[in-house]
Amino acid sequence: xxxxxxxxxxxxxxxxxxxxxxxxxxxxxxxxxxxxxxxxxxxxxxxxxxxxxxxxxxxxxxxxxxxxxxxxxxxxxxxxxxxxxxxxxxxxxxxxxxxxxxxxxxxxxxxxxxxxxxxxxxxxxxxxxxxxxxxxxxxxxxxxxxxxxxxxxxxxxxxxxxxxxxxxxxxxxxxxxxxxxxxxxxxxxxxxxxxxxxxxxxxxxxxxxxxxxxxxxxxxxxxxxxxxxxxxxxxxxxxxxxxxxxxxxxxxxxxxxxxxxxxxxxxxxxxxxxxxxxxxxxxxxxxxxxxxxxxxxxxxxxxxxxxxxxxxx
Length: 313
Ligand code: NCD
Prior knowledge:
Structural class: alpha/beta
CATH class of the largest domain: Alpha Beta
Bound molecules: N-carbamoyl-L-aspartate
Strand content: 5-15%
Number of helices: 11
Number of strands: 9
């Protein structure tokens, strides 16, 4: 049987194309499962998973928890606001305390880039990165590319533009890695102050004019401005940002072709996307959320299969 080349999901950077295709095929199966009247499979009855969220999250946390429960895993949840990290405990101590309760897998979101890699070197559990600062958000990129494949048949050869705050976005970096691995052509578009220097080295092109980018693309992934990661302002006013980089219905309807619109959520309606675009048939935002559960089930299932195989040997 095929298995993942990695023991943890720390970032898309560590995956190869075969891994992503295996995750997609497994997610296809789970998508069928979660649309059945009984949405659960007993696969992970022997696995315990801890969800450690050191940063706010709604949809990612709920999506992981649902994925774990639909696989019949035992789940414990922990969020920083209630934690002893606030009392001065180190990350490793916090996690080791949890692991001594015999936890097999940790899903962690943390504000510090690299925290999941660090943890994987120091604790004895499978780690899934649910977002590490402005670095990577691998399951988001997997569900995004899975949703493109579902809508357009395949990712290969498609033109995808990622619009907005590329500089502070973990979704952007993970999406770039995943899209490139799967053979898409990628552009990033936004104000120059929000595009990292040397980003072309990742094999993407930079476009500062939104209309040109939209006329080129098959898919536009609209990102939220990550105000929480900005110590200073990177553009004059929100109104000017939306005038230049917001997607509204007039602009969408004036394009040469019908493009697919994506957004990882949470949406700031009227800033990066207007309500009529977000709620239109061209937007697949809710499909992304639905696919998130199936894709996360696939990742957890495939990592757990490796634990079970090791224990059997
Ligand atoms: C993204 C995140 O947290 O990085 N959202 C998410 O995972 N649903 C994007 C964002 O916060 O803008």
